[in-house]
Amino acid sequence: MTETHVDSEFDRALRLAERSCTPGVYDADLDDGWFIGGALHGGYLMALCANALRHRLPDHPDPLTISAFFLSGGRPGPATVTTEVIRRGRSLSHAAVRLSQQEDDGRVERLRATAAFHDQDAAGGAFVCSPPPAPMPPPDDCPPMPRHLDRTDLFDRLDFRVDPSTLGWHAGEPSRQGRMGGWVRMADGRDPDPLMLLVALDALPPVTLDFGLDGYAPTIELTAHLRARPVPGWIRVQHTTRVLAGGYLEEDAEAWDESGRLVAQSRQLVRAPRT
Predict the structure, then answer these.
(1) CA distance 180 to 240
(2) Which residues contact 22 (CB under 8 A, 6 or more apart)?
(3) Cα first-last separation, the chain
(4) Which residues does 161 contact at the CB level (< 8 Å), separation at least 6?
(5) 216: helix, strand or coil
(6) Per-block average pLDDT, block size 10, for the chain (275 residues)?
């Protein structure tokens, strides 16, 4: 498992303290620097939960796939991360995780996920079939992310550059093609890794903006597949959708590192903004 050499805000935001009397249960302090659109960023919460699971699975430290249901909006402050090892195998282990917080009327679950973990460095295997990177200008030719949401603390943690061809919504001229693209990296220079990819897959504005639907578009469920360890540098991300019906849509995301290799994929079910 490759560790970063930067004193990163992201790594500080993922810190956990295991309870000595309850193995597999961790205390966390959710960082308000990952706030966006009325709640803490879903990719950040997934990364925190994945970090807890890799503590439980030292022989399999890398997420291969994780599927999370977002049950309520995360808030800055104390939280409890409860893990369960379902099965430990030679090359793959399965586990579950719950993230909860205390509110006035009791304990509220924020996220529940199941995951498969492995050792990515030991997995090996060549890419036999992989999609080419989504075409877009280099990062220096892409504008920064517009600050259009109510709270955009996340934009201070991440360096965003938006593919100009997917920015028509910001000028009031959405393309209605159901596509959003851009580049993302940590603003403080931290190298990307599998935990950062969980954030990158959910970093772009919702594709609902490309249909002229402004407003909060919460994720109901997100499944991520981590395909390879990224090289240092930018992560190129594209979101697309094919179906927006009944007030919900799917968002398919693909992420490539600077070498042009596909490193992660995801699909999430999103509730369209209510008009």
Answers:
(1) 6
(2) none
(3) 45
(4) 139, 140, 142, 143, 144, 145, 182, 183, 184, 234
(5) coil
(6) 61 95 95 87 97 96 97 96 97 97 92 96 73 94 75 81 92 90 95 97 91 88 96 97 94 96 96 85
